[in-house]
Amino acid sequence: FLSRFDYQIKRAGIFSTRIEIPKDFDSVEATGSNVKDFSEEIVDEKRILTVSFKNRTKGNTSFELTGRLNRAEEDDDSIVPVFAPLDVDRHDGKVALAIHSSLDPRTEESGDLRQQDVSILGDKIPGSGSLQIGFRYRGVAAPATVTYTRKKPQISGEVLTFVEVREQMIRYAWTIGFQVRYAGVDTFILSLPESIAEDLRHDGSLIK
User: Fold this and answer.
1) For residues 55 and 184, what is the distance between their CA atoms, to the nearest angstrom?
2) Kind and range of the H or E element at 118?
3) 165: left (phi > 0), else alpha (psi -120 to 50), else beta?
4) Arithmetic mean of pLDDT over the chain
5) What is residue 124's three-state secondary structure?
6) Rounded to 5 degrees, what are φ and ψ at 190?
7) What are phi and psi of 63, to 5 degrees?
8) Is the pTM for the entire model greater than 0.90?
9) Which of 1, 58, 3 is nearest to 24 (CA)?
């Protein structure tokens, strides 16, 4: 995940902020021009990340959190990460999922999140990629669960034929190009004329 936190701080400034972060994500780090350091602790079985600023901070400030969750299988369910900044008067959250083209997503459980058209989120979401699902939430929220179905491969082929007519024989050469979308494949099956099957030669950098 890549999350940007935009703070608006009024009255007295602050030197740090605390955020409850999802349990299952690893390598969580905080970065930003005003970030001095960060540390994590467990409080009442919750993961609390403390982000310290370089100076007393007032007004508007931003920083980013990154982390990852390894999935055993491509089509395993995923939990939409939800963060809960502590000691704030109000918290609005927006989440967008960029999903690999080989996976067809479906929201299995919305939790306390409301689905949002990703086109409305616009440049409010950091990062890059093709955004497919968006959510909004406010305050402390139960996360959503998204399930995935692996798409079947979509294969397109182009056959180019070269025919060389000699005095006593005809020589054929075929160049076959494939375009594979979504899930990858490791085998192609071709139908050939029986008369040339025994005298066929093949060449290609990816042929095993």
Assistant:
1) 51
2) helix 118-121
3) beta
4) 87
5) helix
6) -115, 145
7) -155, 170
8) no
9) 1
